[in-house]
């Protein structure tokens, strides 16, 4: 993409841009803080007419250039403050208004009120044009910290938390949802979450859920859906950061980020684990535990001492219990 340094840093990743454009597909859409056009180009593929508004003349020049390079002809560029009458008065009725607002480079705690332009200001300024709004918001915000009647969609990309989308009006499908890209696995909140059994030990298989599911608070609901065909599915908390789903039967789900076979559960005895790994054709072991970073390589080198095989293990620690797994 043509861009300045800033523009490319904030530009929407390709998979996210494509997904959002599909979800917001309509006839007329305004992308009202379009930057260098990272999202605009995908709207142009899915919508009949796009209005791209940006206050920074340099950024909108890049957005124009990016569209030209791709042969896109259905975008009208407006260089103005998106909240000004100068920008709004030249727009027709719109099906959807989308905004990926600017936010402070750093904040002690992300705050929905520090987005620029702000969500309430955009909704007030465009209320005569549409009632269907979509916003990008910081994914660090928990659902309770978003004081609007909207769908809060947590999105992970390539296994990591990446974005949050807020949908208003007819675009809202539920209270909270989670999606993983590129798999496209998705879950929506539906009433009270079911009670799921908590297991103190992992069963034969362990599954690491996508971060977006946890962030959305939808893990129990996901487990409830899986329980319909895998009755023994349980939650297994490893440490403050990690919670797995576990079952005796091997299963798959588009909202699993990683799937493991549990090989061995034992005390955290480095010599015994190293012997097991040597005798079972292992070459490497990834230590996936909350250990002091200065101790990490010391422990890992001892675990891997003399390994000459081919297999790769993952070692999780729940207190002083070591859980040795291999990816499926
Ligand atoms: C996060 S970036 C948008 C990135 C864009 N979605 C992309 O994928 O390339 C936010 C943009 O909002 C613009 N902006 C901030 N306040 C604005 C306003 N009042 N009117 C229009 N644009 C604004 C900033 O200049 C910045 O380029």
Structure overview:
The chain has 328 residues and is α/β, with parallel strands linked by helices. It has two domains: 5-138, Vaccinia Virus protein VP39 (Rossmann fold, 3-Layer(aba) Sandwich); 205-327, VC0802-like. It has helices at 5-10, 14-23, 40-46, 57-69, 85-88, 119-125, 211-215, 219-227, 270-279, 293-304, and strands at 28-31, 49-54, 75-79, 96-99, 133-137, 151-157, 160-167, 176-181, 186-188, 205-209, 234-237, 243-247, 256-267, 282-288, 311-318, 321-327. Strand 14, helix 10 (293-304) and strand 15 form a beta-alpha-beta unit. The structure holds S-adenosylmethionine. S-adenosylmethionine binds next to strand 2.
List keywords for this structure.
328 residues; alpha/beta; Rossmann fold; VC0802-like; 2 domains; nine-stranded mixed sheet; seven-stranded mixed sheet; 10 helices; 29% strand; binds S-adenosylmethionine
SSE arrangement:
Elements: H1 5-10, H2 14-23, E1 28-31, H3 40-46, E2 49-54, H4 57-69, E3 75-79, H5 85-88, E4 96-99, H6 119-125, E5 133-137, E6 151-157, E7 160-167, E8 176-181, E9 186-188, E10 205-209, H7 211-215, H8 219-227, E11 234-237, E12 243-247, E13 256-267, H9 270-279, E14 282-288, H10 293-304, E15 311-318, E16 321-327
Parallel strand pairs: 1-2, 1-4, 2-3, 4-5, 6-8, 14-15
Antiparallel strand pairs: 5-7, 6-7, 8-9, 10-12, 10-13, 11-12, 13-16, 15-16
Helix pairs in contact: 2-3, 9-10
The structure holds S-adenosylmethionine.
């Amino acid at each position: 993409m043509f861009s300045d340094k800033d523009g490319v840093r904030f530009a929407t990743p390709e998979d996210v841009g494509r997904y959002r454009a599909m979800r917001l597909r309509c006839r007329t859409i305004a992308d009202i803080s379009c930057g260098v056009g990272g999202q605009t180009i995908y709207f142009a593929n899915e919508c009949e007419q796009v209005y791209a508004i940006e206050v920074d003349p340099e950024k909108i020049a890049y957005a124009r250039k990016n569209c030209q390079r791709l042969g896109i002809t259905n975008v009208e560029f407006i260089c103005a403050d998106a909240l000004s009458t100068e920008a709004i008065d030249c727009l027709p009725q719109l099906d959807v208004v989308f905004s990926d607002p600017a936010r402070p480079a750093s904040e002690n705690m992300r705050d929905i009120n520090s987005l620029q332009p702000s969500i309430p200001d955009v909704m007030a300024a465009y209320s005569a044009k549409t009632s269907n709004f979509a916003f990008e918001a910081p994914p660090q915000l928990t659902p309770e910290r978003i004081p609007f009647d909207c769908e809060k969609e947590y999105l992970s990309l390539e296994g990591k938390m990446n974005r949050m989308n807020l949908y208003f009006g007819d675009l809202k499908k539920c209270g909270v949802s989670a999606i993983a890209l590129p798999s496209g696995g998705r879950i929506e909140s539906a009433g009270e979450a079911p009670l799921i059994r908590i297991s103190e030990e992992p069963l034969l298989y362990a599954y690491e859920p996508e971060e977006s599911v946890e962030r959305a608070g939808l893990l129990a609901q996901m487990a409830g859906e899986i329980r319909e065909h895998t009755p023994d599915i349980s939650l297994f908390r490893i440490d403050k950061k990690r919670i797995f789903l576990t079952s005796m039967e091997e299963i798959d789900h588009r909202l699993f980020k990683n799937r493991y076979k549990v090989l061995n559960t034992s005390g955290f005895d480095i010599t015994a684990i190293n012997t097991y790994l040597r005798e079972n054709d292992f070459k490497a072991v990834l230590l996936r535990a909350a250990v002091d970073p200065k101790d990490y390589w010391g422990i890992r080198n001892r675990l891997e001492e003399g390994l000459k095989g081919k297999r790769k293990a993952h070692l999780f620690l729940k207190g002083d219990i070591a859980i040795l797994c291999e990816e499926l």
